[in-house]
Structure formats: C-alpha cells, structure tokens
C-alpha cells in the first residue's frame, strides 16, 4: 500500500465511522455488561432467598418432630414409678402398652439401670437387654446430670445401623435418677427425616443434617455422607460460619471441588443445622442463558450501528469531500480563489459559507496590507528619526533616510555621501573617543553587536546637536574570525531631552540648597522633631530632640525597645500601652496629639506636648512617621501654681458668699425680732415684705456658696427654695405653685434682680390674687406658675396666676406701691428688659431681657 493510499484509508469519514462505532460499541457493551451483572446479582439473590426459604421450612419441621419426641420420652419417663421400674416384667408391659413410642421411635425404646445396662427392650427382637450403654452420651448424661438429651449419632450396638437416641432420666420418689428411658431413631429405616434423605433440592442438589458439636453428618440425601465427619475447620469457610451458628446463604466449594450454592438453618432443640446445597451450574443456568442472549444481541446491535454510521457519514460528508476536491483543483491551477458552491444548508453548508467569508476577508486584508506598507513607507520618510543601512563590505552606507541627512544639517537628496570617517569627524571632541570604542565593540562578532550611544555633533552652521544612535550589526557567524556584513539602525535628535535634563540637574541643585536651608531651620527649631522608619528607629533627629532624649535611644532602639527603657504616662497619670504610643499609632496610619510624661530609668521626668503623623506614599502606604515634642514642663509648673492660686481664691470667694449670706440672715433675724415687737399690723406686713426681699438676695449667695461653680447658680433649684419659703410665709395650702426653669443657669448679676422680681410678684399673687371669697376652691384650682427659659443670650421670665387679676385702675408705670415699683425698676432699669402684662384668665407678667444688656449689676 502506498503512502497516499494509507492516508486515504484513514480519511475523515473513516475516522468518524470508526470512533462513532467505537463509542457505540463501548456504550452498548458497557450497558450489556452492566445489565448482565445486575441480572446476575438479582437472580443470585432470588436463588439464595428461595433456597434459604426451603431449608428453613424443612429445618422447622425437623425441629418440631424432635421436640415432639423429646417431650414424649420425658412424659413417659415421668410416668414410670419406682415400683414399675423395679419390676422388669411390669416395666416391659408398661412400655409395650405405649404404642406411641414405637410410632415415634422406629429403632425401638429401652430402659437402662443406673449402671447403663439395658433391663427392658421394646421390641424384644432388638436383643438389647443386658447390653451396657454407659459409654453412650444418650445414657451417661441423663444418669450423671439428670437431664434429657438428644444423643450423639452412632452405630447401634445391636441394630448395626446408624442411629441417634433421645433419652430422659427416670426418678424415684426423692428425685434421684434410677434409670434412663431411651428412644432410638434408625436412620436406615423410614422416619421423619425422609424429607432429607429421600428428596433432592433441584435436579442435582440435596440436603445434609449436621451435628456441629460432634463434627458429624447425621443424615443426607447422598447416603454416602451419613455418619461421615464434616470437613476440618478452615477447609471450607462457609461451613465454618454455619458451625458457629450463622444462618443464611453463600457460594462455596464442596470437598469434591464443585462450586455449590448452600444455605443453612439451625435446629435449636438439637444444636444441629440443616444444609441445602445446589451446584451453581444448575442454580445459575437461567442466568448464563440470558447472558448468552444479551451477548448475541449486543454483537448484532454493534454491527448494525457500525453499518448505519458508515452510511450516514458517507451521505453527510459528501459536500465536504466535494469542496475539498474543488479546493485542491483551485490550488493547483493558481487561479484567484472563487466562492465555493453550497450544496446543502446544514452545518457543512455553514462551514463552506464561513470559508467563503474568510476568502473575502483575506482578499480585503491583502489590499489593506499593501496600503499599510505604502503608508509605512510614507511615515518612515516623515518620521522624526533617521534610518540607515550600512554595508561593511563597501565601507559605505547603502541607504540614508532624508531625516538622517537633515539631522546632520544636510539637505535631503544631497549628493554628499557620508561614510564612517565623516560621521566621526562631525562628533564633539569630548564624545569622539567613547563613540569610536562603542562602534568597535559593535563590530566584534563575539559581542552583542548592538550600538547604543548618545553624543554631540557639530552642524555645518556651528550649532551643537545631541543625537542618539541605536543600531544592530549582522555578522557572517559567531566566531572570532567572522566579519561584520552590515549594520542598520536609527538615529534620533535628543537635544531637547538633554536640555530638560540639564534644567532638571539645575533644579536638583536648587532643591538640595533649599533642603540644606530647611535642614538648618529644623535643626534650630525649639520644637523637637524626629523622623522614624517602619521599625520605629529614628532616621532624622534635630538638635532640640537630641537634647530631650538620648540620641542612642532614638536611633538604635525600636518602639518596643524604647517602651521598655522609658516610662510613658498620659496626662491623667495612666501608663500608655505599647500600641497606644503616638509613634506606634502613627506607624499604623493615625495622626495623634497628646500630652506625655516621659521618664527614663533614673526617674527624670519630662512633660511633653507630642504630635505624631504618618509619612504616606502616593498610594497611601505608610513609609514611616514624624513626631514632634515640645517641652512643657515649665509651663505645667506655672499652670499648677496658677491652679493652686485659683483654688485659694475660690475658697476665699466661697467664704465671702458664706459671710454675705450669714450677714443677710442676721439682718432677716433682726427684722423678724422687730416685727414680733410691733403691734401695728401694717408695720408687721412691711417688715415681713422687707425680710422676704433680703431673703431672696441671701438665697442667691447661699446657692453660690453651695454650688460647684462660683459664677452661676441653678435657677430651678433657687426658685424651688425661694417659693417654698414664700408659701410658708404668705401662702395657704389651697394655692398650688409650679416652677419651670429646668436647665437654666444664671450668673450672680442677673440672679439677684431676677430673684427679687420673682419674690415681689409671687408675694403679690399669694396676698391678692386669691381673695377670701375664692378660698373655698380646691387647691389645684388656685395656681401660680413661675417659668424662665433662655434662647442663646436672651432670657424670658414669666410669673402667672389664675386669680382675680390686677385692679383696672392700676398702671404699672405710675404705681406707687413699693413692690411693683421695685419690679419695674429691677426689670427695666437694672436688667434692661421689657415687660408684658396679660390679664386674660388671671395675671401674667412676662419679662424679656438679654444677658449683656443689663444696665446695672448687683454688687
């Protein structure tokens, strides 16, 4: 087969058919294998369940039959009295008169004495009398242990056949064992075990009745297995599980090497178990047959799928193969690509359509490429850098762009041919040696072959221009003996950039000078300044900071180490925690201002006003911190002295208020004494009013004396004390007084006149607002309200009652009464306020005054 034929044999159609068939084959065979496995497992489960059900049914029958025989032998043994037992003839007749025993025990029954020797036998033809059976468990255990038992299967001593016995002890009147009643089952004769011995399970299977405690097959469908020992432990794992009491089903290998499906069910009354065994070849024959049918169906479906895939792929891919043939012819002919014919509007048709679009795009791109090359050529001619190609074999340039010539001050199109010598000659003398060395290195075949140099040239008019040349040399090889072939590169005017760099250098020098000036200013500052890095170590310390702290502690120690050397206290005496130190917080990006008490190990303390701020990069990252320290120890000392002096003056001022209050109280006391000595009621009233006025002024000094502040008093508390005193002196229980001055604090120069105004207006209301004809009203109906409020610097004082009101002829401006004259004088002249009187529903005096408009002060 040729190479082309080999390619054709693995065409797309063949590959598609192969891989599709392979996928279907894998899918179908996987499904078949899965179905076969599932069906096999399900059938195995059903077979095991059926087998276990059958063996359970037979085992239950055998267990029931054994229980009947065991209970029968126990019942009859209990009916044998010592008298009957001691008379062998009577005992023989007793047993012969029990036909049930001969029906239940096909091997007959016999009775032995305490020595195990048979004394009675039914039927007598068995000839067991005088035979000693003490060596049989069916006799020895009832005699020794006094319990009924199903004995070990064995060969009968007289019957010469496989038997097993069921026996029960015979007791005397004291409960002592005197003999044993034994019933035997001859396994060679028909018995209740015929379901085991005469029936098969399936066609080739059978049953085994096993006594595991004796490792003996009691009976079996296969007569050869009767009275044969079981397999030794470990030989057959499933039988070992059955011997241990497991009930269920499983697959095992029998001693003959045949795979068997076996199920076991226990017979509790005897401690035996019944096994049903069936060769797996017979048990799973339907499964094997079904798996064969599935295999044939799978093969058939595989062949059909492969053939169908081949036909479908041949039909579907026909347009694509036709297109491939057309493209091959088009390529060989060299003609301009033409759009391909679309035979069907399917995926292949869409592919051909997309290919036609691609052909159209390629044509358009080819046109665009030609235009781009033309534009590139134009741009290269108009570029700000020159292009050169130098041919070393002819020692001259093969191409200089017009811009290249203009950079050297030559006109484009000039007949002048620049060679390497001309270029070197135009260089500035200071740059010429370095340029020559750079060109020499670029010609070395063992080097990089790259030329990148900045230099100055002299133009024909004498001007200096900075140029940068970047070039690449091409060699004939990489050996030392190879020669350079050509070099190409660009040259650029960098005069403007160099001028900028020179300007930048000049500005840098200026900045450095300014930095030096700033350094001198910082060094001479009276405030300590320290710049820290991210570890908290000082990288810049001015002279003042160096005087406040040891320079070694600032430069060499971190924040943590410095924290352990110095004691850092707050203004309130609390120690700073490490993370709360101003510099530690600044290194986390916080700005702090605080008062610090710094103390070193020797105990020397400094009061410092400290500020700390982070140094941030443009992106916000913390680069370090700057801290300032101002020694305020002397200022603190001066402030402390001032505070002590102020405290002394406050004590003195409180004492003054206290003595003024006491003096006024003494005056009030003298007036009270004088009032009591007078007999004229009018004079007594005048004296009482005068005492109240002095009391109002005294109460202000008392409140100031007791207040935390010596400049103002709580007017709510003051009014409560004042009106409580007035009610005691002038009021009656049926007049209710209310005060609304919560939160109002008033200085001394306003509190005294306001207190006297309230004193006069409340006394006036208590004395005249509620005459005797209204005294019968309830107390809550006779009200006096004293209220004061303030808005910024403006106070509003209101005294109102719901009494009878002022007399119609009373004019506040022309009144001659002392009380109202005092009210007008204090409110308008001393406080500079304005009165409003409202007599609707009683009388309301409202005084509005400003904090700074009082015309007189109380002194």
Task: Walk me through this protein's architecture.
By secondary structure, the chain is an alpha+beta fold. Helices cover 47% and strands 23% of the residues. It contains 25 helices and 29 strands. The strands form 6 sheets. Strands 1, 2, 3, 4, 5 and 6 form a 6-stranded antiparallel β-sheet that branches. β7 and β8 form a beta hairpin. α2 packs antiparallel against α10. The longest helix has 68 residues. The radius of gyration is 65 Å and the shape is flat. The N terminus and C terminus are likely disordered.
Quick structural overview:
The chain is an alpha+beta fold and 859 residues long. It is 47% helix and 23% strand.
How many DSSP helices?
25
Based on secondary structure, the structural category is: alpha+beta
- Average pLDDT confidence is 78
**Estimated helix fraction:** 40-55%
Largest sheet: 6 strands, antiparallel
Secondary structure topology:
Elements: H1 3-9, H2 12-79, H3 82-86, H4 88-96, H5 99-104, E1 109-113, E2 118-122, H6 137-145, E3 149-150, E4 154-155, E5 162-171, E6 177-186, H7 194-197, E7 206-211, E8 216-220, H8 237-243, E9 248-253, E10 259-267, E11 272-279, H9 280-283, H10 285-316, H11 318-333, H12 347-382, E12 385-391, E13 396-400, H13 402-407, H14 420-425, H15 432-442, E14 450-458, E15 464-475, E16 484-493, H16 495-524, E17 528-532, E18 538-541, H17 543-548, H18 551-556, H19 559-565, E19 567-569, H20 582-586, E20 592-599, E21 605-616, E22 622-631, H21 633-677, H22 681-706, E23 712-714, H23 715-730, E24 736-740, E25 745-747, H24 748-768, E26 783-791, E27 794-801, H25 818-830, E28 834-838, E29 843-850
Parallel strand pairs: 24-26
Antiparallel strand pairs: 1-2, 1-6, 3-5, 4-5, 5-6, 7-8, 7-11, 9-10, 10-11, 12-13, 12-16, 14-15, 15-16, 17-18, 17-22, 19-20, 20-21, 21-22, 23-25, 26-27, 27-29, 28-29
Helix pairs in contact: 2-10, 21-22, 22-23, 22-24, 23-24, 24-25
